[in-house]
Write a structure and sequence with these properties.
Ser_deHydtase-like_asu; two-stranded antiparallel sheet; 451 residues; 2 domains; 10% strand; 8 strands; 2-methylcitrate dehydratase PrpD; alpha+beta
Length: 451
């Protein structure tokens, strides 16, 4: 396959709309699929197992169309109203009655959720038992990648033993030099890459919502207030922080809006795109130039996450998406190949210690930091200020620096991930159970949710 086609194919696969944090969405998607496999009168039990990283990232995040947080309600909503054909938008269209039904299903004790002892970063398993038989599904590798589907004892799909074919081409892409990939993106006709602008529109829209009213932590909203009060300047860096944080504020609060994700993460998508939106709002950028810059940002995010993992103890918004947007901004500024390599070194020297302690309202702080570092790294690099080799994990080349980051993530941060998860679990309140009201119990029976 030609490199150009591989890049476009990768972008189409990795840059997709998502509603809500992708970890609880993956749980809801698996539950929806398990439900749809069966024609039944009622659920007897549903056991959901997730990887430690899925558990960590879904523990405290808001769920769209509800005022709830966490994986339990996401699982129940998947059973009640999720539609798997909507993919990462599986919770789109959930209504208040379905939310109430989902709560009642949880309180009935028929749904359980536990951590799976697995090395897979992304793993969701659902074992559904109904009055008409069982179904089992597993998502692994990607948030929407089904690797196992079983209905009534018949195995319909089993990719658990490997099916690496879809990754062969990408391994070739991620083995190239960054400058080779960017050079190829520059040659792609606008019509083949114009779809990148869909994410600009989508993510800018949610950022504007987060700026109009205080949502979540209100980081973006408060930064805007700071500019109005004269404490902050409305420059490229502050605008990047404000937009990116505001979008995260809205998303992490569970707003009923989709975002354009990047490499399986909505927050990565916000960080990869919105600093570029700040740039195009301040400077004159053609649609073609902007589309290619966004493509560069997404590809860099995907490139780095290939080495650190789709989920990691490191904050990918800081080390991957932030690097991507920094590289793209420098490219828009007219940076040379050496300067673009310098952006990568500068960003990773700055953010490599940023941990991921789950998806939550506080992510807006990390996204604002990532956005500011992206701009800072670009400005420093184009003015000749680049972290020299052998400073910490920074190597002679950008690619070797990324590989060093990968080693840090895969070998150095495993114990950190365990400690982070254990700390979060200690602070997590036990799920509260309430008695079922008779009218709710009757409705659940009528809907075939309980016996």
């Amino acid at each position: 396959m030609k490199l150009r086609n591989l890049i476009v194919e990768t972008l189409k696969e990795e840059v997709v709309p998502a509603m809500g944090c992708t970890e609880p969405v993956a749980v809801a998607l698996a539950c929806a699929k398990a439900k749809e496999l069966m024609a039944f009168n009622y659920i007897e039990s549903a056991k959901v197992f997730v990887s430690p990283n899925i558990y960590k990232n879904g523990l405290s995040v808001g769920i769209p169309n509800t005022k709830e947080v966490g994986l339990h309600i996401a699982a129940a909503l998947g059973f009640i109203g999720g539609e798997s054909e909507k993919d990462l938008r599986v919770l789109e269209g959930i209504n208040e009655r379905q939310v109430q039904l989902a709560k009642e299903l949880l309180h009935s004790g028929r749904v359980s959720l536990d951590i799976k002892d697995t090395e897979d970063k992304i793993y969701v398993e659902v074992n559904l038992v109904t009055d008409k038989g069982n179904s089992n599904v597993i998502i692994s590798g990607k948030h929407n990648r089904f690797v196992y589907i079983e209905r009534l004892g018949e195995v319909l799909l089993d990719l658990r033993k490997g099916d690496k074919k879809s990754n062969i081409g990408k391994n070739i892409l991620y083995g190239l030099k960054v400058r080779e990939i960017i050079s190829e993106i520059e040659k792609i006709p606008h019509k083949d890459i114009a779809f990148m602008l869909d994410g600009v529109v989508m993510n800018e829209a949610i950022a504007e919502v987060g700026l109009k009213e205080k949502m979540g932590m209100g980081v973006g909203f408060s930064l805007k207030k700071g500019m109005e009060q004269g404490f902050l300047c409305e420059d490229l860096m502050t605008s990047s922080m404000m937009l990116t944080a505001a979008a995260s504020d809205a998303r992490m609060s569970g707003i009923n809006l989709s975002v354009m994700s990047s490499n399986g993460s909505g927050n990565n998508g916000l960080t990869a795109i919105l600093p570029l939106v700040a740039y195009k709002n301040k400077f004159n950028v053609t649609d073609e130039k902007l589309a290619k810059a966004v493509a560069i940002s997404h590809i860099m995010n995907s490139y780095i996450k290939h080495y650190i993992g789709r989920l990691s103890a490191l904050c990918a918004c800081g080390v991957a998406a932030g690097t991507g947007s920094g590289v793209a901004i420098a490219w828009l500024m007219g940076a040379s190949e050496e300067q673009i390599d310098g952006v990568i070194k500068n960003t990773l020297a700055n953010t490599s210690g940023m941990i991921c302690d789950g998806a939550k309202e506080g992510c807006a702080l990390k996204l604002s930091t990532s956005a500011s570092v992206a701009v800072q790294s670009a400005v420093l690099a184009i003015n000749g200020s680049i972290v020299p080799a052998r400073n910490g994990i920074v190597a002679e080349t950008a690619e070797d620096t990324i590989m060093n980051l990968g080693v840090l993530s895969s070998e150095g941060m495993n114990i950190a991930d365990v400690v982070i998860l254990n700390t979060m679990k200690k602070m997590q309140k036990e799920f509260e159970t309430l008695p079922l009201h008779e009218n709710s119990k009757s409705y659940l029976k009528k809907q075939g949710i309980i016996a």
